[in-house]
Amino acid sequence: MIIALATSQAAPGPGAVQTFLHAVRHPGPVMLMTEIVVGLLVAGTIGIAVMSRRLSESTRRELWLRMRSWWVMVGVTLLVILTRYEWVTIACFALLSFVSLKEFYTLVHMRIADRRAILLSYLAIIVQYLWVWMPWYNMFLIFIPVYMFMIIPLRLVMAGETQRFMTSAGKLHWGLMAFVYGLSYLAYLLVMDLDTPFAAGNRGLLFYLIFLAEFNDVLQFMFGKTLGKHKMTPHISPNKTWEGFLGGLVCTSILAVLLRFLTPMDAYHALIAGILIATTGPIGGMIISAIKRDVGVKDSGTLIPGHGGVLDRVDSLCFSAPIFFHFIGYFY
Amino acid sequence: MRNWLLYLWFLVIVRPIARLLIGVSVHGREHLHFSEPTIFVANHNSHLDAAVLMDLMRLRDLPRVRPVAAADYFEQGPIRNFIWKRCMNVLAIRRDKVTRSCNPLQAMIEALDAGATLILFPEGTRGDPEKLGEFKTGIAHVLAKRPRTPVVPVYMRNLGFAMPRGDLIIVPMFCDVFIGPPRIIEGARPQIMQHITDAFHNLVVLADAMRPADVPADDR
Known about the structure:
The complex is a heterodimer of chains A (332) and B (220).
Chain A: H1 2-7, H2 16-25, H3 29-51, H4 57-82, H5 86-108, H6 115-133, H7 137-159, H8 165-191, H9 202-227, E1 231-233, E2 237-241, H10 242-258, H11 267-295, H12 311-314, H13 317-331
Antiparallel strand pairs in A: 1-2
Helix pairs in contact in A: 3-4, 3-9, 5-6, 5-8, 6-7, 6-8, 7-8, 8-9, 8-13, 9-10, 9-11, 9-13, 10-11, 11-13
Chain B: H1 4-22, E1 24-27, E2 39-42, H2 48-56, E3 65-70, H3 71-74, H4 78-87, E4 91-93, H5 104-113, E5 117-120, H6 138-145, E6 150-157, H7 159-162, E7 175-179, E8 183-184, H8 189-210
Parallel strand pairs in B: 1-7, 2-5, 2-6, 3-4, 3-5
Antiparallel strand pairs in B: 6-7, 6-8
Helix pairs in contact in B: 1-2, 5-6, 6-8
């Protein structure tokens, strides 16, 4: 109910029940989007149930596992987006950064001498999201690329281990840029100040980006499975095909235009935003794939059943979030 | 309610650290459940080892579990002594003054006879972080006296990174715990040691297949 109230348009008349009913009958843009997403999940679940007779036992189990994880992930994401308390959303994204960064460090093997620098980089998460919460835009922009860029190597120098120093400095800063700096843009979408007022509010922007980026992943996966012939990067990510990419690009761009009621954008800008999201998403995916190839694992972790690790899911967001943010910020 | 301190320690302190801060993924959790006195044989990299392993077990089994540790190490201060003895239920053995009446192995055998399950770290020391040391033969002596005791090998990885020797700060890092099937080991001392080493090696191979160990940059 709190959620419905927070996301609906202003309701007339007194009384909690009436207000609630009004919110249900006249959903605001964000509530409408929530209904679309839940509808998609239901459709997907029914789709798998219908198809499941024709699938092999292992494929079926794999699909169900994936679907179940989608329900959990979407549920949690909806709660995080819809809560009326901004700081809860910001804290949840900080937690996402922490888990991603932890998974990244576990993946790439750090030296024992890096422990204190790693601890500092975890603390940087708190500081970075503090800038979001304040909000202090300039500090948010430069804290990691400028200050942490100096502080992390400084701590490594103090640790005094010169063997593979540059490797460590590189890994630490790369992890911070991708999973703290990049992902914190999601949280900043919530507090950014736009000149053009729009009905959905900043929550809508966040919803728009996360939905398009993740749905683009799903679309590319499905187009790739059904039509895929020409591999984009056979040595790095054998599942990524040109057919999948183009299918995702076309559908995501159309969706971006249709869902622009969540944003202040006109159709033309929404089309460009869709193209940006559909191209930067897979770039992130390929980069994470290359890292996994380098260390010789298939999944980045074991946290999400059927999907692998957290990195496998956030990879498309950590590059598209800053680009989408600055695109919106420039025009509106 | 004798064990309230044990439960409090594990539910309030150990569980949040192990599951939220560090993040432990378990492979072979079903082998953790025991009905009779069992010996868990684990590698030792960190103060966290025993606590993390016990945290994975069923809560009602916990009062029967006793990690075996050297008395000379943790009897260094009142806080350490309190945590290890009262919260962790440690079975303290003396390595320094071994006499016929004060034999460290005897304490373990008595504990097994009393129905306890032991966690042994046969490397004897946490040693260099994330390096497997050679196993000491104490466990073979215990098994010679109590030959029908099941032995469960446990290989833990990355905990030595999260909290290595000589450092009290925990740096969050996902850790793996690999648990092998329980086995009854019989034979002479060298055969027993060989068997345990092999069982351990199998777990290491399994772990490396899942996530290859680090290769120094120059060797690539």
